[in-house]
From TrEMBL:
It comes from Modicisalibacter tunisiensis. Keywords: Cell inner membrane, Cell membrane, Membrane, Transmembrane, Transmembrane helix. The keyword Transmembrane helix applies. Belongs to the MgtC/SapB family. It is a multi-pass membrane protein. Residues 13-144 form the MgtC/SapB/SrpB/YhiD N-terminal domain. This is Protein MgtC.
Length: 232
């Protein structure tokens, strides 16, 4: 009995430590689901798996074994299905930006780790915990240094009496090393304002900063603008 209690404590403790380490990385980068969330998810998953793997410690010993069949794999399926709702809660879209995808993936991974720790599958659980921490930390550094294309959601607004034609707008945007991928048009304020709404592409993020500086200081006929770079 003492060996069984010790094994349960080791499994739960390992799950708590793994979830805490992954959550600590998320908290350090200011993510909404961080230290406490990941620790609780991992421990809860491990605890639910322990309920199925140690069922004869809480079931009535007088019950015939053939009358009770608790399948641990069905419990694991239920855990992973339920954790999807929690992961979906941290994902939101704002313009071209989609936030929370990595955090949702880390919650899903943390739940899977809890299942492994709960059934005592220690070797792969420890290896995947280390690889998850490596992915979240080292891969961020690599990703920031890889060449990439940058996109931005951009709106330029003009008084209806001073609206430049589309060719002039495209030429102006091109002078700052940006390409217009899509463009749409909108009237507002009872027809007194005209908006060019476009998605920009560039190979250097500083081009977007230069464009914003120009529109802020030198573009006399632009009443207002909105420039929102895409990225998680």
């Amino acid at each position: 009995m003492q060996d069984g209690v010790l094994a349960i404590l080791v499994n739960l403790g390992s799950a708590w430590l793994a979830g805490s380490l992954i959550g600590l990385e998320r908290s350090f980068h200011g993510r909404p689901a961080g230290f406490r969330t990941h620790a609780l998810v991992c421990v809860a998953s491990a605890l639910l798996m322990l309920v199925t793997t140690h069922q004869w410690q809480w079931l009535d010993a007088s019950l015939p074994e053939a009358t009770v069949r608790t399948d641990p794999t069905r419990m694991a399926q239920g855990i992973m299905t339920g954790i999807g709702f929690l992961g979906a809660g941290v994902i939101f879209k704002e313009g071209l930006n989609v936030h929370g995808l990595t955090t949702a993936a880390s919650i899903w991974m943390t739940s899977a780790l809890g299942i492994l720790f709960g059934v005592g599958f220690m070797m792969p659980a420890v290896l995947v915990t280390l690889s998850t921490l490596l992915t979240l930390s080292l891969f961020r550094w690599i990703e920031q240094r890889l060449p990439a294309e940058y996109y931005a959601d951009h709106v330029q607004s003009y008084p209806i009496s001073r609206v430049p034609d589309e060719t002039a707008v495209r030429r102006q945007i091109g002078e700052f090393g940006c390409t217009i991928q899509t463009m749409s048009y909108r009237l507002s304020e009872h027809g007194t304002l005209f908006h060019y709404h476009m998605v920009l592409q560039t190979h250097d993020k500083r081009n977007l900063e230069r464009l914003a500086a120009y529109l802020r200081h030198s573009a006399d006929n632009v009443l207002e603008f909105h420039l929102s770079p895409a990225g998680q």
